[in-house]
Structures are given as structure tokens and as C-alpha cells.
Amino acid sequence: MKSRIAMLLMLAALWTACSKPVGTTITNPLNQKVNELTVEITTPEILQAAASMESFKLMDGETEVPYQLIAEGNQIQSILALVSFTPAEAKFISIVAGQPAEFPKKTHAEISIKEGGDWKWVTKRNGNEQYEYEGGDWKKIASLWVDPKHTDHSFDIRYEGPGWESDKIGYRFYLDWRNAVDIFGKKVDSMVLPQVGLDGFDSYHEMSDWGADIMKVGKALGVGTIAHWANAQANRVALTDSLYSEVTMDGSLQSKITTRYMGWQFDGGKTDLTSQLTINAGSYLTKCELTSSKPVDSLATGIIKMPDTEVLKSADETGDWAYYATFGVQSLNKDNLGLFVFYRKSQLELLTEDKLNHVVVLKPENNQLTYYFGGAWELDSSKMDSIDKLKNLLDQQLALLNAGLIQ
Fold first, then answer.
1. What residue stretch is flagged as signal peptide (predicted)?
2. For residue 16, pLDDT beyond 60
């Protein structure tokens, strides 16, 4: 009898252990709700369970949440999940076997070039002589060594460089001597970049149902552009031996563009600089991670100066991060637009300005530097029509950055 009871107790204990859900707890550090935050799960038990299942779902209680696997080869490194929080909520995310639901894609990255045409030497209306690409059809590609004949308005790269977007906002940068970041304001939450510029080289400057290019960058930094501070001005990455750009991730919750500036000539030296740009679902921010082959003092980024705009600086003295931002009627469509840069306080050298830009001068550590940049527009889902709204957004993002919850 005793042996039977002992056996039953052992079976009961084993059943309880086996039925205990595998998961992890993620806590919202803010006393306010947070909608659609991309979080990274690295809990070993979850990763082991995911590797052992043919298919699985991530659950927030009874609600399934979208996820994206981050893997190297066959090894799962982490899982990204898109979750929302009530104020100060501790949320248990569990993994269960089963076929996951299909969720809308919320990030995208791309590069498209013309193929099937020819390079022609032309004289532009302004008198400049250069190569242009004539004819051909657009083709989406994974990576690109930039043709030495390419320059601004060569018509061989769709919207003139790589593009990346979330469900909130889109970006591009010019893959030439300008190397400046521009913004696509979005009035919809679907992925729009695959259609941008197909109906005309620069048709995206005109307002459409999805939105438009909403910044005039010119010779300035736009927002978040890589620069070097020298001779009292921010100098963009203009002179290089060669340029290589690659879509290193095009995921449902996270996408990345990696660019190598080989032989970048800056004031006082020359280096190979690698940039990795990352955007997450539900986010207005782009993460910029820079690695230089040689020491470069006074790397910089910043925000274009526009008339009748206000400057905001973070007031929170705690935490590792701070922000610098502008707000006002500064979009091409004459709407309100907030532009911002987040930087590590430990890497700040100087907050300054030149004729064209508000400048954040930063000190790399071990030849590496990380900052975030972004924009929020009056006609996108943020309805960014007041400086108070922008401050609320920035303060929330700052708190999440300081809590380590923004990837």
C-alpha cells in the first residue's frame, strides 16, 4: 500500500512539473501604459523549448502575441515578441506547442536597383556633367557594392538608397556623397516602401494615400545622419574609396541595414566605418551602431535646423541616456514634425550647432558608438501636433531605454 501511495505521489509530482508553463516575466517600469513594445526574450528554458518544438506560439495569458526568431545558423539566440503593457504591469509570456497565427508584417528593409538599362554620360539642367542610368527595370536585391559611376540623381537606385520602416514611420539614406537620412511620413500602418518610387523616380515627394517624403535635407544632417565634428561644423561621410550596403534582416518585428564605408576620409585621418541601422515594430526609433577600424574622435550626429522650431532637451538626470529634439512646422507638407536623437551621457562630448544643424558630438568607446534617432509626424498615428505630445513620447522612450527594454 505504502509503495502504491509513494508511486502515485511521484507521478503527481512529475505531472505537475511537466504541466508547469515555460515562460518569463517582463515588467513595465513605467506608471503609464506602453503599447506594442518589441521585447527580447533570452530565457534559456524558452529558447530550449522553442528549439525542441516543430512549431510554437507565444502567449500573453490567453492571447497569442507576434514573435520573430533571432538565430545564427540553426541556433536560436533570442526571440523578439510584440507586447503591450498596462501601467507597472508584470507580464508572464509563455511558450506552447502549436501552429502560430499569421500576423501583419510590421518592419521592412530593402534596396532596389535598375537592371537591363545602360549608363549614359549627360549634362544636367544645372550644367553638371555626370552618369545617369537609362532604361531597365527595378529589382529588389539583398546587397550592393555601389557602382563608381553612381552619384546623386543617377536614377539607378530606387529612392537613391536603402530604405527601412516600421508600422509607424519610414526612413532612407542617400547611398552617395550626401549620405544623409531622410524621413517617409506614413499615414498607414502597412509596409509601403516596396511601392515607393515605382511610379516615378521622385514621386514620393507628392502626398499620397500612404504618406510622403516629409523632409528637405539639402546639405544638412536631416535626422540621425553620421558625421564628424571638425572646423566648427558637422561633416557628413562624403569621401570614401567604396560603399557596400546590405539588408541583413527583413523580419516581421525587426529589420536591419548594414553599410560599410570603406576608406572614409575625414578631417585628420582615414578609416573603414561600419553602420548598422535597426528598426523595431511599434517604434519610431532607428538604432544606429557604428564601428570604426581606427580611432575617430568627435563622431557626431544631429538634426537639421529649421526656422520657428523649438528645442527640447531631456530633464531627467537619472539613467544612462538623454535626448535632444526639435519640434515645429518643419515638414515639407507644412505640418508639425518632431525630430530627435537619443545618446549615452557617458559618450557625450558636446551639444552644439553649426549653420545648418543642431549637433550632438559623441566620443566612441573602443572605436564603437551607439545612438538612436527618429521622427514623429502630425499626420501619422502619433498625431504629433503639440510639443507636450512630443515630450511625452520622448520621456517614455527615455525611460524604456534606461530600463534596457528598447532593443
1. 1-19
2. no
